[in-house]
Specification:
The complex is a heterodimer of chains A (about 110) and B (about 120). Chain A has about 110 residues and is an all-beta fold. In chain A, about 0% of the residues lie in helices and about 55% in strands. Chain A contains no helices and 12 strands. In chain A, strands 2, 5, 6, 10, 11 and 12 form a 6-stranded mixed beta sheet that branches. Chain A has a 4-stranded antiparallel beta sheet with strand order 3-9-8-7, with no helix packed on it. In chain A, strands 1-4 form a two-stranded antiparallel ribbon. In chain A, a hairpin with a 4-residue loop joins β8 and β9. The N and C termini of chain A lie far apart (about 40 Å). In chain A, about 35% of the residues are buried. By secondary structure, chain B is an all-beta fold. Helices cover about 0% and strands about 50% of the residues of chain B. In chain B, strands 2, 4, 5, 6, 9, 10 and 11 form a 7-stranded mixed beta sheet that branches. In chain B, β5 and β6 form a beta hairpin. The chains are: A mainly beta (about 110), B mainly beta (about 120). Chains A and B meet through β10 and β11 of A and β4, β5 and β9 of B.
Chain lengths: ~110, ~120
């Protein structure tokens, strides 16, 4: 069965520091990978997605993610975090043959001054 | 504007009182889904629909019903809500593509339901 693991429940980063959020997936075929962000009391916003091609994907708000098939990972990165990045981040996997996204449990990002 | 809308956005109700959360999309998408979001669990699929009159269970269907009488609408029905259905609910839609393809899902703004 498909699954997504986000090993960090909470992460605290200083404003201006770099960020990496981890995501590992389990899926038998070519995965379609997504990162979503949810600000407090808000809905889901798509940050970026990987369908095929270049394994380094650029997204909105200065985020990027790298697909590593050998490690079954799709980690999210940002070189310099802003206070407005404080939110919950979800990694998700989709695939042909099933019409749903399987989500990780989320990582809550706290940004300290 | 292409969008998925949900109503109501917030709802407080009592145990056993039937309710419906509506979902509508204006993108002519074939696929629609309902998810619930709970702390520490992420989002889990409740039901999905491949097209009009075609629905199937997702991972957590107990206590829910759906219908798909029109392509644009996919209401979620709680016949007898219980407190464990207190959650944040998201509707999503996507276009049907060729076999062996995947199309991005578009999410609604969410409905926060509290069952007392």
């Amino acid at each position: 069965a498909q699954s997504v693991t986000q090993p960090d429940i909470h992460i605290t980063v200083s404003e201006g520091a770099s960020l990496e959020l981890r995501c590992n997936y389990s899926y038998g075929a070519t995965p379609y990978l997504f990162w979503y962000v949810q600000s407090p009391g808000q809905g889901l916003q798509l940050l970026l997605k990987y369908f095929s091609g270049d394994t380094l994907v650029q997204g909105i708000k200065g985020f990027e993610a790298e697909f590593k098939r050998s490690q079954s990972s799709f980690n999210l990165r940002k070189p310099s975090v802003h206070w407005s990045d404080a939110a919950e981040y979800f990694c998700a996997v989709g695939g042909t043959g099933f019409q749903k996204l399987v989500f990780g449990t989320g990582t809550r990002l706290l940004v300290s001054p | 504007e292409a969008q998925v809308t949900q109503n109501p956005r917030y709802l407080i109700t009592v145990t056993g009182k039937k309710l419906t959360v509506t979902c509508s999309q204006n993108m002519n998408h074939e696929y629609m889904s309902w998810y619930r979001q709970d702390p520490g669990l992420g989002l889990r699929q409740i039901y999905y629909s491949m097209n009009v009159e075609v629905t199937d269970k997702g991972d957590v269907p107990e206590g829910y019903k759906v219908s798909r009488k029109e392509k644009r609408n996919f209401p979620l029905i709680l016949e007898s809500p219980s407190p464990n259905q207190t959650s944040l609910y998201f509707c999503a839609s996507s276009k049907k593509g060729p076999a062996n393809s995947y199309n991005e899902q578009f999410f609604g703004p969410g409905t926060r339901l509290t069952v007392l």
